[in-house]
Amino acid sequence: MSMGGVVVWITGRPSAGKSVFGERLRKRFVHAQRPVVLLDGDAVRAAMKPAVGYGEQARQDFYETLANLAAQLATQGLVVVVAATAHLRAYRAYARERAPRFVEVYVHVSADRCAERDAKGLYAAVREGRVAGVPGADLPYEEPENPEVIALGGLDEEAIGKIVRLV
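and the corresponding structure tokens:
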């Protein structure tokens, strides 16, 4: 197992289980005594001042900032677990280019299942016309073409084990 820094980017549709998966992965690295930090996209977005919007340019700026922050932390030897939708492949490619090492993890859950789970009520809000611009609902979500790991939901222990071995 290499001890250098790495960015493990967890992508998937809203309500796929990225945050749950990220927290479980973080705990596994803590247990293995690896220096790790979890950057949950929603938590980072909430911490940013001024507030970050959801328009096309605002999303691009947010994901570039998140990728740069993750890369900076990884260059210091940390395992940086990023749980963020990053619905366009270009966002994830940008993150890959900056990271000293990069592992893309796709939390694969069907669009229908995500809409059923609807952890934050986003899919319902889109259906009711209260919200627009939700990846996987009224915006496209571009699935990864060649992720290093595919997780089947947020509780996939086999995928967590594979990531730990890769890192």
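(Above: one complete record from the training split.) Helices lie at 18-31, 41-47, 56-74, 89-98, 111-117, 122-127, 157-166.
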